[in-house]
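Title: Prediction job returns without error message
Component: structure pipeline
Severity: low
Priority: P3
Assignee: unassigned

Description:
Job completed but the reporter wants confirmation the result is attached to the right record. Sequence as submitted:
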Amino acid sequence: MTVMRSVWTNVSKPDVGDKIAVQLEEFGNFTATCQKVNEDRAEFIFDNCVADEIRDDVDSVLEKIAAGLRDSLKAKLLKVDIPTYGQIFGHDDFYERFEPDNDERWPLMKDRRNRIALDTDGNLNWYWLKNRCKNSAPAFAYVYYVGAAGSNHASGSGGVRPAFLLEL
C-alpha cells in the first residue's frame, strides 16, 4: 500500500506550513506552524492554546513561554507575542473596530481551520489577539472557537496562542 506520511527532518530554513515541536517546561508539549519566512527570520504560531484563564497576566505567560523553550529554540528566539488581528484575519471590515496594526495576514490563516485552536484538554477554545477595541479600553479582539473574529472584555477567560519569531 502506498501512503504519504509526514516525517520529522532537519532543514536549514523552514517553509510556510512546516511544523516544529515545542516543549515548554511549565505547559507541556506543543507544535507550532511556520506562517512566514524571509531571508533571515521565520514566524511561527502555536497550533493549540497554551494557557487558559490567563486573565490580565499575559506578559508573565509570554515570559514563561520564552523561558520554557528548549535551548536550541531559545538561542534563536527574537520575540514571543500574541498574534494581531491583521496576522489572523487581515484588514477586513471588522478590523475597523480595533486599534490598528500594520501586520499582513499570514497566508495559512485564510483557511478558517488554521485559525481554530484546541486547549490542552483537546477542546475547541477561543484565544486572545493583541488588538484592543477602539471604543472600549478593557475589550480586545479574539478568535472564536470556530475560527471567526470577535471581541470581549479582558476579564473573560480565554486562551493564548502565542506567536514567536526565530532568527535563521
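Comment from assignee: result matches the submitted record. The beta strands are 19-24, 28-37, 41-46, 77-81, 117-118, 124-125, 127-133, 136-143, 149-153, 163-167.
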